[in-house]
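EI: anyone free to look at a 227-residue chain?
SC: sure, send it
EI:
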Amino acid sequence: MKGCLTILLLLVALFIGGVWYVFRPMTLGITYTAADMESATKKLGVIFEALPPGTTGKTLVVSGSHPVDQTFTSSELTALADNRSKQYSLFPFKNVEIRVKSDGSVEGSATVGFGDAVRHLISLGVAEQDINEAAAKFNIPNATLPVYMNVSGNVINDESRLSVHNAKIANIAVPKQYIDQYGPALNPLIDSVIQSRKPSYRMDRLEVIDGKVHFKGTSPNREQAVR
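SC: here you go
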């Protein structure tokens, strides 16, 4: 868990450069419409609701399940991710774009605030002490910065097999040595999230096919989250 902080958070302080360049969001040329959001949500078949007032100990609760075997375009994926913070306030990414590339990899760009990312990591089970130690070690600024990642691979039978090829923080490339060292930590983090959503979520296959992302498994009938 501790290593997963670096790709999205820990190296921020190492790459602060010119102010305009650093804070300019990276664009991938992907746009979406209300129809894309409607189509993607219909494919998942999940009813999204606010978590009832007074619920303690949880920020997101899923219930029920149904089979899903669907493909999603770059625009549909972007619509889902860019609107996620409206469904779940702890989701830290804004201005999200996701592009499925012809080489089978997937790239994503967004802006993320340090405080938002910390709260999200804690909700995923990352120890607050580990986050505080990392923040102090790397002198991470309390700022909102653009991030970018390019990955390939798949998730088969709830096991993530993703490889990180490139990453940028503040529009500056993360050195390969850090990607090689910390990139593999992305997989156990994803695996832990999948396990925490069981039995409602199951990922038999999540993979790129013909320029789209194919998902086969189960989704919950209902999701209730803090807003």
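EI: The chain has one domain: 4-225.
SC: 👍
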